[in-house]
């Protein structure tokens, strides 16, 4: 099971097809999280309230959340209706005109970015030569979001989730050696939810390359939470809604001190998201590793016509 299966899954990652073909018993994180206290994030007031159902919490905003004050959960921005219906159609037309590649846990992907090896901390240009032209307006619009000031996209990835394949993604933290603080997602076609669970690095300090955050912690947008602040979320999950056509930016404590996942149960219709990544400060212009990333930044300024040019192959890990 450690080798890729025909569906694209390997190891503990599974989809409906390989669970059937190989009689794999899957970890159901929904069951795991049922023992936790659940909160849901309200994008209207930027606070969290008790409850698993994000739709109910969002609807309760009009009534003042029944007088509940809510709690702060810094490090999240959800901008509703960030792209229009026409823009969504144009994005999906371009996305579906390009080939998809299989991915783990029932997903499909289209990846545009450098070649990375997270275990060896090795960066290569690979086949990266920029991004499809039809999506350029999304990156241009980042400049209108104050939180996205100076964000320099160096990876753009289309990810498709469908209920027919049982698509999901297990709890994880995005790599901290190469990907910077702001984790950016544009959600298309249907609503979904990001489920956050507190992470403890005890006994495995190098997982996700989290130990490297110490090198640039003084450059983070917001300070990480202290132990006392995290203690109140012992045995808790936070549910963050990702409504159709919304923008989600995750940074600070949710980026580094919580794992995030998309549960299979939260994919009810086809969902496609555009995920954007930036480099860590070490690879920025004044960073110690800039010589290794300069060529990537150069290619990231290029936008090409997907109907006129051959689509480059998806970069794998070195």
TrEMBL record:
One of its GO terms (molecular function) is demethylase activity. Residues 153-280 form the Fe2OG dioxygenase domain. Its cofactor is Fe(2+). Keywords: Iron, Metal-binding, Oxidoreductase. One of its GO terms (biological process) is demethylation. InterPro entries: AlkB-like_sf, ALKBH4, Oxoglu/Fe-dep_dioxygenase_dom. It comes from the Eukaryota. Transmembrane segments: none annotated. Belongs to the iron/ascorbate-dependent oxidoreductase family. This is Fe2OG dioxygenase domain-containing protein. It comes from Culex quinquefasciatus (Southern house mosquito).
């Amino acid at each position: 099971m450690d080798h890729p299966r025909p569906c694209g899954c390997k190891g503990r990652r599974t989809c409906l097809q390989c669970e059937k073909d190989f009689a794999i018993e899957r970890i159901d994180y929904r069951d795991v999280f049922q023992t936790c206290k659940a909160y849901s994030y309200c994008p209207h007031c930027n606070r969290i309230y008790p409850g698993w159902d994000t739709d109910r919490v969002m609807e309760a905003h009009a009534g003042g959340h029944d007088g509940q004050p809510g709690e702060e959960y810094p490090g999240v921005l959800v901008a509703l209706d960030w792209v229009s219906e026409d823009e969504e159609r144009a994005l999906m037309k371009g996305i579906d005109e390009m080939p998809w590649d299989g991915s783990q846990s029932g997903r499909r992907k289209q990846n545009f970015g450098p070649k990375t090896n997270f275990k060896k901390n090795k960066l290569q240009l690979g086949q990266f030569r920029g991004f499809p032209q039809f999506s350029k307006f999304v990156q241009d619009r980042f400049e209108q979001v104050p939180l996205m000031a100076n964000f320099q996209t160096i990876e753009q990835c289309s990810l498709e989730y469908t209920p027919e394949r049982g698509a999901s993604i297990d709890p994880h933290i995005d790599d901290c050696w190469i990907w910077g603080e702001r984790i950016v997602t544009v959600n298309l076609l249907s609503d979904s939810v990001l489920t956050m669970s507190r992470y403890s690095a005890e006994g495995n300090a190098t997982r996700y390359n989290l130990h490297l955050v110490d090198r640039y912690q003084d450059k983070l947008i917001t300070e990480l939470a202290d132990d006392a602040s995290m203690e109140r979320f012992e045995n808790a999950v936070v549910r963050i809604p990702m409504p159709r056509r919304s923008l989600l930016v995750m940074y600070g404590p949710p980026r580094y001190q919580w794992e995030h996942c998309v549960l299979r149960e939260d994919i009810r219709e086809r969902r496609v998201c555009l995920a954007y990544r930036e480099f860590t400060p070490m690879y920025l212009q004044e960073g110690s590793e800039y010589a290794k990333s300069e060529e990537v930044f150069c290619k990231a300024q290029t936008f090409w016509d997907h109907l006129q040019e051959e689509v480059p192959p998806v970069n794998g890990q070195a």
